[in-house]
Amino acid sequence: MLMPYLIDGYNLLWRIHNGGESVSDIQLCRAIDRYLDIQRQRGTMVFDGIGPPDKSDFFSLDSLSVQFVGEHTDADSVIEYQIEQSTAPKLLNVVSSDRRVRDAAKRRKAGVILSEQFWSMVKVALSKGSRRESPPGGKIMGISDAETERWMKEFGLDE
């Protein structure tokens, strides 16, 4: 079941930096995009401000959409609004360590993941592999003609 992620971008980035790691905003988004791809999920990362002049790197991600909220509001307000407007809030995973955002998520019974916990989950998943493994070739290609003949004989269907 798809459980979309709604992520407080600078809150997560600040927690990562506070934990001693150096990650840029685009590196963070790429890592989260890979994580969501592995999990077969989708997400939205919401950042305060207008972001860098060239946002093309942020908009070339597959599983993560990125929003810069502009100068006249803040990410917390936008996230609260998105939680409030959600038609299925119980399916949301809200990632933030900000009390205001967590409280808004809890009011609508959305899942809440603290930023530092989420980053740990991301690192563990990414260390295990960049993508889910593809099914074995036989599952895609089917069995060979020789194998088909053998099974037809085995079941007496070759006549």
Indicate how many domains the architecture comprises.
Answer: 1
CATH architecture: 3-Layer(aba) Sandwich
- Structural category: alpha/beta
How big is the Rg?
22 Å
Rounded mean pLDDT is 87
Distance between the amino and carboxyl termini: 46 Å
SSE series: EHHEEHEHEHHH
User: Approximately how much helix is present in the residues?
Assistant: 40-55%
The top level CATH class name: Alpha Beta
SSE arrangement:
Layout: E1 5-8, H1 9-18, H2 25-39, E2 43-47, E3 64-68, H3 75-85, E4 93-95, H4 99-107, E5 111-113, H5 115-128, H6 137-141, H7 145-154
Parallel strand pairs: 1-2, 1-4, 2-3, 4-5
Helix pairs in contact: 2-5, 3-4
Question: Key features?
Answer:
159 residues; 7 helices; elongated; five-stranded parallel beta sheet; Rossmann fold; alpha/beta
Task: Provide a descriptive summary of the structure in words.
This protein is of the alpha/beta class and 159 residues long. The chain has helices at 9-18, 25-39, 75-85, 99-107, 115-128, 137-141, 145-154; strands spanning 5-8, 43-47, 64-68, 93-95, 111-113. Strands 3-2-1-4-5 form a five-stranded parallel sheet, sandwiched between helices. Strand 4 (93-95), helix 4 (99-107) and strand 5 form a beta-alpha-beta unit. Helix 2 (25-39) crosses helix 5 (115-128) and helix 3 (75-85) runs parallel beside helix 4.
